[in-house]
Design brief:
The complex is a heterodimer of chains A (about 550) and B (about 375). With about 550 residues, chain A is an all-alpha fold. Chain A has 25 helices and 4 strands. In chain A, strands 1-2 form a two-stranded antiparallel sheet. A two-stranded antiparallel ribbon of chain A has the order 3-4. The longest helix of chain A has about 35 residues. The two termini of chain B are about 40 Å apart. Chain B folds into 2 domains: about 220 residues, 3-Layer(aba) Sandwich (Rossmann fold); about 120 residues, Beta Barrel (OB fold (Dihydrolipoamide Acetyltransferase, E2P)). The chains are: A mainly alpha (about 550), B alpha+beta (about 375).
């Protein structure tokens, strides 16, 4: 984490004292993080501990005393554990095939793995319902009485939803292994399996642990897939929603939120503080990255597996537009645009435009706050730097449902009366999705030589002028990547905002859920198709304006 | 220890020919250095001996037995990689023992052998450390110990010292050579550093464009380069493009100056390159020329202090010529002052121009800086 520090001789406090503007900005960032990250969580914790007569553990006693409620926690853990193992296993095979062998079609596999990153997280569930639901193509064709709703549905949907982050992480780890290491093992007499086990996988172990912990958090906090395809199989994230929105039982919702946070925080802490210190840097001077031809007996099975998964993701995302053009999925296969008239809902297509508004505002606000935060943390190093950084990254461990509950509890009273306004939605998107954006900005700043800034300062420029005239132009590509990241999340996120939407301001992603629940999967597909088109269109447009690779898709 | 025979070995990567019909015989216990610039095919040649690359045509044989179809793990070859490729998940002892474990040696013998290798490579006390807790020089030794543990009959070293500081490089070079000679193991040593090759090898093979330009003992290569590339690549040389005036009389002309050299087998009027090492040029006093010596007049342009010697760049007919003088004579020269140089006819090496023309510009002197 350390890099050459500009003005390293001065103490952090002295450096900031010399520049009141920087100190003010640092304080402002700290205040924002305390308000929008810490305060909602504190409120959730407070409500969960609040009884009629002061502090109490009664709510927790209720939760762990009720077999039904405790069972929901076990459900969450069971589904997340199974999903995590399957996801990481498939991601490992894909990542190995793409980075350590010479199979054809690697670009296609990588491209397909990016698709779920830019789509509403539960479109996979919707596609599985179209295939295996009560009116699903496969269910109908085979005359099955079985349908996918429940445990199996959640698991398969989560596997394909969270495959990309696991795949990208493992591909990165495996792709950086010095080929000489495998050759050295071979030269010392090791066969292919010994080399794989003792060298390649042994090196990937921290990466595997990290991927598993990240996917576990994503599965635990996943809301969209369980609510769509979970059927009667309840998990914590959806039960919190049912308690808070369905029964207005905030105490129970807050208690379950705390129960949900704990395993997520543990996984997050293990990943950040333990696994993070274990990774092996194997690329050194003279390292080889060129691959030798893979044995056909290995290459073709791996090719089949990788292509199979990539094609299946393609099919999933092809089903959504297809479902939107078919008059009545499962019975009337004629093509029609009827779902695009949105007659099933009084809101019409408005939720989509609300989403665009939220996405644009979140994009602008989030990018600015993230850049300033990163600049202060990485370059100015104020006294509270560690605290600011820690708080900025903390939401990675917070479930969206907990953010949702916390924001309702924290911001429904003056002076911070935000409920019922666009700003509660904007702040929830910005601060829940803050970690990835801040890390991206910090990493870019680390690559900019501090001497460039020192040169500007030595020529008499102030901190603000240096940031605006020197640093900001170098950050343009990253800034647009961060904007795209917030924009995409504003368009597709559901778990936090579903608590925060207000009458007259529904969002596209939530409307998809409503339509599925009301029995209009075709309309849901139409909404999903429009959202996908807007997101892909926005990414392509920005790339065209900014020049190709400068606008990247940021990953979890 | 095995004899290595490469016969007409060719390896292509797509349209590029990395190794082009290369033949080389390496005797038992000999250390041969493959030396050349990047992309000359030296590493690919090494990898074909290790079995990581398969020749498209030609044959790799150990002790006369073709090994083209023998996979790397069955060749009995030890290799030290440029990046060392130490397994970062294992300690020094586990790294060294890896090949023995794979070969299912009994645990007691493994421990004994690891102890021997640790002693051989001066790694005592480091056994339980991980690679990232070692210095570059120590990592290099672990890589060597690991490669030698299985008692290979052939040792391959791919730029083993290129990642190290100059001082450590010198010391390890000596250690590697000593171990190699003690074990009497047939060794191929790839390097881009001609000085390293000269100092460590029994024989040197200078490579360019996938072919061997010249192979021979270091002294031969240095004293009698057969091509201008070798003269330019090995050591420092003044390469003077000259025309044969009279082969029978041993007379050449360079920039209007008559010079004498051994011209056996050359034709009158032929264009050749006359290679003269800087240390073969001497400063001579004004006056009547000593009998038989070639004389050059020039102006001193640059004086570089190199410890025991002083290297001058002298403009002769407007062309730079490098001269090494003993330090004691340095007081006698000054910048922009005229100087008189001389060299014996037998100290000029006459290199015929290639049929396809010289591939590097035979400028004088070579552009390499010391």
């Amino acid at each position: 984490m350390t890099s050459p520090v500009p003005g390293a001789l001065a103490s952090p406090a002295a450096r900031v004292r010399g520049e009141p503007g920087v100190a003010l900005a640092a304080l402002a960032v700290l205040a924002l993080l305390l308000t929008f990250v810490v305060w909602p969580v504190v409120k959730v914790l407070a409500i969960s501990l609040q009884g009629p007569a002061g502090m109490t553990l009664a709510h927790f006693a209720d939760f762990f005393g009720s077999w039904r409620l405790f069972g929901i926690l076990l459900n969450s853990l069971a589904v997340s554990a199974v999903s995590t193992v399957l996801t990481v296993a498939i991601a490992l095979v894909l990542a190995y095939a793409v980075t350590r062998t010479d199979i054809p079609g690697k670009r296609f596999v990588s491209l397909m793995s990016l698709l779920p990153l830019i789509s509403p997280p539960f479109l996979v569930s919707l596609a599985f319902i179209l295939l295996f639901g009560r009116n699903g193509v496969v269910t109908r064709a085979l005359g099955l009485s079985w349908s996918i709703y429940g445990f199996e549905g959640i698991v398969v949907s989560q596997v394909f939803t969270f495959l990309p982050p696991a795949y990208i992480l493992l591909a990165n780890v495996l792709g950086n292994i010095d080929t000489s290491l495998e050759e050295a093992a071979e030269n010392l007499g090791a066969g292919a399996l010994t080399t794989l086990r003792r060298v390649t996988l042994s090196l990937a172990r921290p990466g595997l642990a990290s991927a598993a912990l990240i996917v576990f958090i994503l599965c635990m906090t996943d809301f969209g897939n369980p609510i769509l395809i979970g059927g009667r199989y309840n998990v914590l994230a959806t039960e919190i929603y049912a308690q808070v929105i369905g029964m207005s039982n905030f105490a129970a919702g807050a208690t379950m939120s705390v129960v949900l946070i704990v395993p997520c925080l543990i996984a997050y802490a293990i990943n950040t503080y333990w696994v993070g210190s274990k990774s092996y840097v194997t690329v050194s001077a003279g390292a080889r990255t060129a691959l030798r031809p893979t044995a056909p007996a290995v290459r073709w099975p791996l090719f089949a597996a990788a292509m199979g998964v990539a094609l299946f993701i393609g099919v999933i995302y092809g089903l959504i537009p297809l479902g939107s053009f078919v008059r009545l999925w499962g019975s009337d296969w004629s093509l029609s645009l009827v779902h695009y008239t949105f007659k099933s809902t009084a809101e019409g297509a408005w939720p989509i435009w609300n989403s665009v508004k939220l996405a644009l505002v979140s994009g602008i606000v989030g990018t600015l706050v993230a850049l300033v935060t990163a600049y202060i943390v990485e370059r100015k190093r104020p006294p509270a730097r560690r605290v600011i950084e820690g708080l900025a990254l903390l939401p990675a461990a917070l479930p969206g449902t907990v953010i949702g509950v916390g924001y309702i509890l924290a911001f429904n009273v003056p002076p911070l009366l935000l409920t019922g306004t666009l700003w509660i939605l904007v702040t929830s998107v910005v601060f829940w999705k803050f970690p990835v954006a801040v890390l991206a900005a910090i990493n870019t700043l680390k690559q900019i030589d501090p001497a460039i800034e020192e040169a500007a300062v030595s020529l008499g420029a102030s901190s603000l002028r240096t940031f605006v005239r020197v640093v900001l132009p170098l950050l343009t590509g990253t800034a647009f990547s961060i904007f795209v990241y917030f924009f995409i999340n504003g368009m597709v996120t559901v778990s936090a905002v579903i608590f925060l939407i207000y009458p007259g301001f529904n969002l596209g992603s939530v409307a998809i859920l409503n339509q599925v629940e009301n029995g209009y999967p075709g309309v849901a597909c139409a909404l999903g198709t429009i959202i996908l088109a807007i997101v892909i269109g926005a990414v392509l447009l920005l790339r065209a304006l900014m020049g190709g690779e400068r606008v990247a898709i940021l990953k979890v | 220890m095995a004899r290595i025979t490469l016969t007409g070995v060719t390896r292509r990567f797509g349209a590029a020919v990395a190794v082009d019909g290369l033949s080389l015989d390496i005797a038992q216990g000999e250390l041969v250095s493959l030396v050349g610039g990047s992309g000359c095919g030296k590493t690919t040649t090494l990898r074909m001996i290790a079995g990581f690359e398969r020749p498209d045509t030609g044959e790799v044989a150990f002790d006369g037995r073709a090994v083209n179809d023998v996979p790397p793990r069955k060749r009995g070859v030890g290799i030290v990689f440029q990046s060392y490729a130490l397994f970062p998940t294992m300690t020094v002892a586990e790294n060294v023992a890896f090949g023995l474990r794979v070969a299912r040696w009994p645990e007691a013998k493994i421990r004994e052998r690891v102890g021997e290798m640790v002693a051989l490579t001066n790694l005592g006390g480091m056994e339980q450390r991980y690679a990232n807790q070692l210095s570059g020089g120590q990592q290099q030794r672990v890589a060597l110990a690991r490669a030698l543990a299985r008692r290979p009959t052939i040792l391959l070293l791919d730029e083993p010292l290129s990642a190290l500081d100059a001082k450590i490089r010198l010391r390890l070079r000596g250690e590697i050579r000593k171990i190699q000679q003690d074990l009497g193991i047939t060794t191929v040593y790839v390097t881009h550093d001609q000085e390293e090759a000269l100092s460590i090898a029994d024989r040197i093979a200078v490579m360019r464009d996938g072919r061997i330009e010249q192979v021979g003992r270091p002294e031969e290569i240095y004293a009698a380069p057969r091509t201008d590339f070798v003269a330019d690549f090995i050591g420092i040389s003044n390469l003077l493009p000259a025309r044969v005036v009279s082969a029978a009389a041993g007379e050449l002309e360079w920039e209007g100056t008559r010079l004498r050299a051994r011209l056996d087998g050359r034709r009158d009027g032929e264009v050749v390159t006359l290679s003269v090492r800087p240390e073969k040029l001497a400063m001579v006093p004004d006056g009547p020329p000593a009998a038989g010596l070639n004389r050059l007049e020039g102006i001193v342009e640059v004086i570089t202090f190199l410890g025991p010697i002083v290297r001058l760049e002298v403009a002769v007919h407007g062309r730079p010529v490098w001269v090494d003088l003993p330090h004691a004579q340095s007081h006698a020269v000054a910048r922009k002052k005229p100087i008189l140089l001389a060299f014996a006819p037998e100290d000029g090496v006459v290199i015929p121009s290639r049929a396809d023309g010289p591939r590097t510009e035979a400028a004088s002197p070579s552009r390499r800086t010391p």
